[in-house]
């Protein structure tokens, strides 16, 4: 299961993720056979040419002779974090005894003498994690989940020195917290390295406080990069097989130069201990956020004001794209920067501020790290043609919601048609009431779905509302049929639908026309 690596009980979503993630990670990988030096030729007179795709052997320098010099240099800056939380329990009311209970009079006198209620009690709980010093003046970085809502935070060094810490700022989305301790003299501090330079297979070293043992060192390699474990919108973890256990949370992951390239934060484990699958927040993501927390006490993320979804092969074909790429705009906030700049629903964002957007998961991270107020070029594909739109980035605030439609409800006679496994009717007040469709959501109502159809596979269900077909608005079933015929006549094998659910949340769905 995916677990935050301090000693804490994993939540149900983590347990569900663990089962699916573990199953996916157990797939068998086929490894090309390397040609060995000095392999015999089949004949002396006509040696066979090596296939172009045959991998050649690489030098094998072996493991480092020792990590001791690196560890000796960085260990003084790695700390343990003890976070204590005090909770107040309400007074316990003594039980009401049923009539006729033996010694009823005796119990009643005993309880009444004590006021009938026990005094309130306080319960103190501690959690242990790891952290590291990044500034000689007493700035310490750890995970947000290590400190939680603690009343008292102590930072403990390897020599036993203990200092109380205050929280400068925290970011639950990426699970980072920055602390300040008072110092009499400069501390040993670590420097950040460039996590983008890491390659799969590079050596890394983790130091932390697993199970409260403190100062524990483990080494391994980078197993994967840009790993998404579905813990938040900005997932971009380094995966490593260096042993990471509960209590390692917030500790540093080092490269061979002794630079911090990651912050250890989670593990995948069916047992609660290390099975060689640990995850670290890369410094390319963490360092700008730490800078913001130190400067402002909060993070200030960029905001574009769009709701997006991924582009799969079927959707790409329906849009006329040569391949699946980019982030499909499924909604535009009318108050957001994208709307002001002219980005529209149905645009496919393929490049943002000079960075290619390979899929929808990458765009939120890129936008969030963009300075507020910066004017950026956003390249979109609109109806098959590329165009560049300049957008001034706004600031993301908590709880911002996607745009909702504001068109008046339709009040027209019901019309009926079916296509692609869907039965459809024109919006009416009776349908709006029947399916609890929100005011302002208008289009063609899906009333039934064939369970064996592609529409059902794409999770279209009765009560959904078709807003567009082929990026053209529709108001009646006849409009849907007409658009489908036009798309077929253009030689396309799938059609792109813009679908709203009863609450008004919209998404694009590509349906095959070949059924």
Entry keywords:
about 20% helix, Pdz3 Domain, 6-stranded antiparallel beta barrel, about 525 residues, 11 helices, alpha+beta, Thrombin, subunit H, 7-stranded antiparallel beta sheet
Task: Describe what you observe in this structure.
This protein is an alpha+beta fold. Among the domains are: 102 residues, Trypsin-like serine proteases (Thrombin, subunit H, Beta Barrel); 94 residues, PDZ domain (Pdz3 Domain, Roll), CATH 2.30.42; 97 residues, Pdz3 Domain (Roll). It contains eleven helices and 28 strands. The strands form five sheets. Strands 22, 23, 24, 25, 26, 27 and 28 form a seven-stranded antiparallel β-sheet that branches. A hairpin with a 2-residue loop joins strand 25 and strand 26. About 11% of the residues have low confidence.
Query: SS-based structural class?
Result: alpha+beta
- Residue runs with pLDDT of under 50 for 5 or more positions: 6-46, 398-414
Envelope shape: globular
What is the fold named in CATH at topology level of the domain at 195-296? Thrombin, subunit H
Extended strand count? 28
At the fourth level of CATH, the homologous superfamily of the domain at 195-296 is Trypsin-like serine proteases
Biggest β-sheet strands, sense, barrel: 7 strands, antiparallel
| End-to-end CA span | 40 Å
Top-tier CATH class of the domain at 195-296? Mainly Beta
- By CATH, the architecture of the domain at 195-296 is named Beta Barrel
Rounded mean pLDDT is: 80
Count of discrete alpha- or pi-helical segments spanning 4 or more residues: 11
Strand content bin: 25-35%
Helix percent reads 10-25%
Radius of gyration: 30 Å
